[in-house]
Amino acid sequence: MFNMGAEPAPRIYGRDKHGIARGSISHGALKVCEILRTHKHSAYIVGGAVRDLLLGVVPKDFDVATDAHPEEIHRLFRRSHLIGRRFKLVHVLFGPETVEVSTFRAGEGGEADEHGRLLRDNVYGTRAQDAARRDFTANALYYDPHDETVLDYHGGFADVRRKTMRIIGDPRLRFREDPVRMLRVVRFAAKLGFGIDPKTRAPIRELADLIENVPAARLFEEMLKLLLSGHAAACLAQLRKEGLHHGLLPLLDVIVEQPQGERFLRLALDQTDTRIQIGKSVSPAFLFAALLWHEVLTAWRNNEGKDMRSIPALYLAMDQVLDAQTDKLSIPRRLTTTMKEIWALQPRLEQRSGKRAFVLLTHPRFRAGYDFMLLRAESGEAPMELANWWARFQDAELEERNAMLIPDSAAKKRPRRRRRSKTGDAPEQAPAQDEPGN
Ligand code: ATP
Ligand code: MG
Fold this sequence. Notes:
Elements: E1 11-13, H1 15-18, H2 27-38, E2 43-46, H3 48-55, E3 63-66, H4 70-76, E4 80-84, E5 88-94, E6 97-103, E7 105-106, E8 123-124, H5 127-132, E9 141-144, E10 149-152, H6 156-161, E11 164-165, H7 171-177, H8 180-192, E12 195-196, H9 198-201, H10 204-207, H11 216-227, H12 232-241, H13 250-254, H14 259-277, H15 284-305, H16 310-326, H17 333-348, H18 354-361, H19 366-378, H20 384-395, H21 398-404, H22 408-412
Parallel strand pairs: 3-6, 11-12
Antiparallel strand pairs: 1-10, 2-3, 2-9, 4-5, 5-6, 7-8, 9-10
Helix pairs in contact: 8-11, 8-12, 14-15, 15-16, 15-17, 16-17, 17-19, 19-20
């Protein structure tokens, strides 16, 4: 079927050269390869997992590539699903682990748009073709668990050793085929501490605008991977450096012009990176709420300036910012709902009268709202005294809580449209020590 005679041969590295211990590969991935093999298919661990294993990094997940077709794979594994987004794949479940199994495919033969962007690449191919359609040499290594060899068609083995991200084939063409690869190279370089090969890097600035043609939902997915890579701050810095920040998130355009916004973002990103690096979970809604917060603040103040009352002005601002964002990078509704709740809690957290404070504690997003306010306080945008008050109030016994309350009348007498002042409400007690958010 495929021109097997012309099939290029890979370079083969044995156990003594690659040093990957079989024990460092997930049970599920080994099992998938073994079962496919007993059914006369070839199957390899591919992509990021091989790259990470060569680097001595624990892979996030394991992908398998095989010559078996999706329906055949599905039939072999009772606990598996056919997934059909851009391309049909199979998810095989082993307890908590999901192994993604894809059929070898050829990058060529698909349809492209007028900029050269591949709209479909769902043509099955050989192993060599499958290697050639992958993005970077370091991501195109095949590990065969049966004989413990690494197969390398594009020099990825040497590139991993010299810590270089290099695109496979002609950079211009490959970035045109899929502009998201420009974001991917930045993410991998920042995350792995790799350099970008000069020829790969050269056309990025010029092609950066092609990102705008990528469907907004896909852009969101890739951006989320970048933000949750554990190296978000480094990734965003590199995106700016490569001129890739335009049109992604408005914050990336304004980050330098808003000193306070920048401090807030830096804290949010550093906190996210730290959490990921120590294995804690991160809420994407919280993160995106933080990324867009200064946009919301600006729009809020703007609306208040048009004589709107503060709370309606905030709600309008939230919608304005999210609407403007949707065309570029569409944030799914499941996240925007939570983001709005977090934002809407901010002025509510300034009210510390009896009933209100107690009601807020039971709000399902209280913790996220409080953590967000803490971030604002740490960046100098909200009074630290307020954050400290809530830190104490959450942990206090009922009696102490009652004593801490600040009467409503104090708030009611204020003029309408009060500004959130630097000093905030007068504290009735000395603030507690700084309390970390988690
Ligand atoms: P991570 O550690 O972040 O999961 P990864 O390399 O496994 O990194 P994935 O997004 O999981 O990245 O993709 C798996 C593999 O699929 C990649 O290693 C690469 O070979 C291939 N791939 C993914 N996206 C693309 C793309 N846009 N163009 C070409 N190949 C791609
Ligand atoms: Mg992966």
